[in-house]
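Hello,

Our lab assistant flagged a job as stuck in the queue for most of the afternoon. It eventually completed. Since we weren't sure the result was trustworthy after the delay, we are filing this so someone can double-check. Below is the sequence as submitted and the structure that was eventually returned. Let us know if re-running is recommended.
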Amino acid sequence: MKNSFIVASALLLLVTGTAFAGDLPQYTLVIKNHTYQPSELKVPAGTKFKIIVRNEDPTPEEFESMDFNREKIVLPNSTTTVYVGPLRAGSYGFFGDFHQDTAKGRLIVE
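-- returned structure --
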């Protein structure tokens, strides 16, 4: 009885979490020629959202932000998802850790 309750609770959390993640606002960043396109994303304040980072370069990149405390490796010619927020209104920088001179961008939170 106790084990079936634990299993049922875990499944409920899994299903609920998956449904919630699918409902989040989504934005796309493309890494191409070691730059972010677009270099600025406007996102809503006070809302959790996800950024789909697609690396079209033949080399890996690390999506990183010290302003909103995220870092994630994006392998060559692949895609990853970064969950962010909720954030207060303002401007938050992000960069590609492997190409800091060219891979730069900002979240404009309104």
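-- support follow-up --
The delay was a queue issue, not a problem with the job. The result is valid. The longest helix spans residues 2-22. The mean pLDDT is 88.
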